[in-house]
Amino acid sequence: MADRPDSGTALPDLHLRPRGSGPQTLDVVRHARVYRRGNELIVRDRRLRERRYVVGEGGIARAVFVPPPGSGTAASAPVADRWGVVDFRDADERTILRIPLAEWLPEAGLVGVLDLGPSQCLDRTGLRRFVGDLGISLQESPESRAHPEDKTSGVRPDRAVHRELPAWHNWARGIGMFVWFVFFLVIAMTGKANEWTALVASAGLFVVPGSDLAVRLLQRSHDRQNTLLADATIVVPAPEEGSGATRRFRDTAAVRVLPQDVVLTDTLGRERWIARGGASGVSSLVRLTDPKSGAVLGVEFRDGADAVRALLVWRWWFAGPQGRETWSKLVSALGVPVSDRKVRAAEHSVPWWQNHELAADARSMSLMAPKEARSRTRWNASAGQGAEPLIVSLFGLLLLPQLASDLWPARVAGALAVLTIVMEVATVVVHQLASRLRLDRPAALESP
Predict the structure, then answer these.
(1) Three-state DSSP class for residue 177
(2) Considering the chain, what percentage of its residues have pLDDT values greater than 70?
(3) Which residues contact 64 (CB under 8 A, 6 or more apart)?
(4) CB-based contacts of 307: which residues, under 8 Å, 6+ apart?
(5) What pTM value is reported for the model?
(6) Residue 31: HSE in the Cβ half-sphere, 13 Å Cα cutoff
(7) What are the tens digits of pLDDT across the range 346-378?
């Protein structure tokens, strides 16, 4: 295995795409890929760095699909393990690379294990076809994926997985909180606290919101430099009149069509990339109609195996004044066959798509209640730190008395505490104001 920077050449038609990602991790869904070039299997990460594995003599000899544990435990297992893994092994049966299926299924967070079996997931990710393209065999192990370590060497193999946030971000936050705890509480209990320990404690606490800000600035910089979507055909929602569609929905949700990919962005800014064409790529559109009234209810994106890969609700995407043009634009951009199917709608008290296998997708790609949208787009909610603004601000308040000291280290400690509180509170306030005053207000519909 070798690490190299990405060469910048175009990807082959057959390559694996990662699971959908939110706004904080768009660099993963846009750049991370698994593909073959020559006799090498290449795993590319969010920073375009490549890990290369030789296929054939002296390298990968075969692939083994290891299913997940029994159905009862699979449903509650971590997302990465829900559909099992594919192990790439050498001639000595040593696992060189392990690919969890859920990490490379674009709709992993939108479909459950009851609707998608492990074997189906193997096809939907494109891994079965990919292994065949490598020229090696794919076998199914009789054992479930219950052992994280390779039996032969006892060493964990390389894994094709990606963190939600950069590793340095988690390390910085952890170290910052540890420093605050030690220098503000532990040393204080020994009676040895002074202005210098207060300064160190305040600096440690400041690192917590500071690392969050650094990640957000880096992501914004990457977004500005991103040109992958520059030439895409963009299809935006055309909701029916009087639906109360918000600016967040109108400005964020979109379907972008590229030469090799279909990029779906939901109301919360979460992106997923699906291939165009092939057994695991978008190959047809299916309009779902009510069997009684004949009204169109939604649109399914289906792949070459006739599996549903995405679901749009017609009311929110094609029922408005610009709906006909929007639908024509999508059909023209994809260039795939269109058919109609009758679907039994759910009872009137619930959405028609409630029992659809991609009900979660229909919901995320539709208008969302403002309160829910605000809650799910908070930085701390998306980063898994729901109560952090309150807790860190309270910790900062404990250091504010240092501002009244005559010693400069204490005053600096107090100033850092003020900055920490401001950064935590400002994140919440700005998000709430932007949401309530702009994003979650009704957007004006365009006339045809």
Answers:
(1) helix
(2) 89
(3) 86, 87, 89, 138, 139, 140, 141
(4) 120, 123, 124
(5) 0.88
(6) 20
(7) 666 578 998 899 999 999 999 999 999 998 888
